[in-house]
Design brief:
The protein is α+β, with helices and mostly antiparallel strands and about 190 residues long. It has helices spanning about 1-10, 15-35, 45-65, 70-95, 95-105, 115-120, 125-135, 165-190; strands at about 105-110, 115, 145-150, 155-160. Strands 2-1-3-4 form a 4-stranded antiparallel beta sheet.
Length: about 190
């Protein structure tokens, strides 16, 4: 009984080459699939996107491990994925053109304060989702934003209009204080 337990836990149920090849095939498929799905899958996840990613991971799990549920098989699969990812990232670091082809280019969603609806449509993103992302970065509304860029990794960078509404209000208050100070100085001079 003890021997069967150890055997089930550590003895591979599939050949080593297959245990290494399975994660490589699944990895390549997911890289291509997520690239074709667009940056949105990596960006602001809504509940539907989260469900897709969770079920996707569960779906490909069996493709990676096959019928082998041993700890050794799982560790080999995980080690293969980690090593493959390390080498792919290292290779792409030195090959910028290929990296851009795989990851894609940044996409400008707001330019000169105008929401580019055709870009949102291409990324399957609504104005409401863009507003939520802007709120998370401290903007009260899209009116405060001069430029928004969706990067290949799925993050959205927002750039405020210059000057921001807060800076404009601050400058207006300072101008009023200066005007009041000048009037007070004028009143003091006329009394003196």
């Amino acid at each position: 009984m003890h021997t069967k337990f150890l055997s089930d836990m550590f003895v591979l149920g599939l050949p080593l080459a297959e245990k290494v090849l399975r994660p490589i095939v699944v990895y390549a498929f997911l890289v291509v699939g997520l690239r074709l799905a667009g940056k949105r899958e990596l960006a602001q996840l809504n509940p539907f996107d989260l469900i897709v990613l969770l079920t996707l991971s569960n779906t490909v799990q069996n493709a990676i491990i096959g019928e082998d549920n041993s700890v050794t098989g799982g560790l080999i699969g995980a080690a293969t994925l980690l090593a493959l990812n390390h080498f792919v990232v290292k290779y792409l670091y030195n090959h910028e053109g290929l990296d851009r082809l795989i990851e894609g280019d940044p996409d400008v969603l707001i330019d000169a304060g105008k929401v580019r609806m055709e870009r949102l449509k291409k990324e399957l993103m609504t104005v409401a989702e863009l507003e939520v992302a802007a709120h998370k970065q401290g903007f009260a509304s899209l009116d405060e934003i001069d430029r928004a860029v969706l990067d290949p990794g799925g993050n959205i960078a927002f750039f405020a209009k210059r000057p921001t509404p807060d800076i404009s209000r601050h400058e207006e208050i300072l101008a009023r204080i200066d005007a009041v100070s000048a009037q007070l100085s004028s009143l003091r001079a006329s009394r003196g």
